[in-house]
């Protein structure tokens, strides 16, 4: 499923709606970040070029994500990626779907499971724990819906209260990130062969007891 880094085809649009001049005066630590990205991914990531125009905000976001994506998190890495992809699908963020699908694959999430994600509620590929978390993520992300005590009670069957707070923070973070990228038209950058084209789909996980 993963493409080799740096092999994105020219057919893909590389930039967002807001173009950043090549000589933009980024601070030194942003230039260091871009150097690291070129070594790891073969290119600079467009969302970072945009957030880099607000370097203090970028640093704050980076610290928040590292706190949520730490090894000791009560939310396992594969589930974190599934949540981030599902939130990004609802928000139409091609870049976030693309990158987080690739990260999920690296964390052991199968292609089959990623393809089934928009319909997780009806799929045997997902555990009840995963379905509870993904239903919560959908309810938080879809502005036409509301969370309630029944949904929290469902989560409490599988997560501690501290873990639910952290789960909520992860979903809120991904909503901010994906809405930012979607609004500015940040395209997929070729990390995943299908992730950026995954459908938004209907909110199949929305019903709960």
Question: SSE layout and pairings?
Answer:
Blueprint: H1 28-41, H2 46-51, H3 55-68, H4 77-90, H5 94-106, H6 111-116, H7 128-141, H8 149-156, H9 161-183
DSSP helical segment count: 9
Q: What about the largest sheet?
A: none
The CATH superfamily of the largest domain is identified as AhpD-like
The strand count comes to: 0
Overall average pLDDT: 88
How would you classify the quaternary structure? single chain
Question: What do these coordinates show?
Answer:
With about 210 residues, the protein is an all-alpha fold. It folds into two domains: about 25-70; about 75-195, AhpD-like (Up-down Bundle). It is built from nine helices and no strands. Helix 4 (about 75-90) runs antiparallel to helix 5 (about 95-105). The radius of gyration is 17 Å and the shape is globular.
Label this structure with key terms.
209 residues, mainly alpha, AhpD-like, 2 domains, 9 helices
Short recap of the structure:
With 209 residues, the chain is mainly alpha-helical. It is 54% helix and 0% strand.
């Amino acid at each position: 499923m993963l493409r080799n880094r740096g092999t994105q085809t020219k057919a893909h649009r590389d930039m967002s709606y807001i173009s950043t001049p090549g000589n933009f005066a980024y601070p030194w630590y942003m230039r260091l970040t871009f150097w690291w990205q070129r070594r790891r991914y073969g290119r600079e990531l467009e969302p970072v070029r945009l957030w880099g125009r607000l370097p203090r905000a970028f640093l704050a976001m980076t610290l928040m994500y590292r706190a949520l994506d730490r090894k000791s998190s009560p939310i396992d890495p594969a589930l974190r990626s599934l949540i981030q992809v599902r939130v990004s699908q609802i928000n139409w963020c091609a870049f976030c779907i693309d990158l987080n699908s690739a990260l999920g694959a690296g964390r052991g999430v199968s292609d089959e499971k990623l393809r089934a994600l928009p319909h997780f509620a009806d799929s045997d590929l997902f555990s009840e724990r995963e379905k509870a978390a993904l239903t919560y993520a959908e309810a938080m992300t879809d502005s036409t819906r509301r969370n309630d005590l029944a949904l929290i009670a469902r989560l409490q069957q599988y997560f501690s209260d501290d873990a639910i707070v952290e789960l909520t923070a992860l979903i809120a973070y991904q909503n901010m990130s994906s809405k930012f990228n979607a609004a500015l038209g940040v395209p997929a950058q070729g990390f995943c062969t299908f992730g950026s084209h995954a459908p938004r789909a209907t909110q199949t996980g929305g019903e709960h007891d």
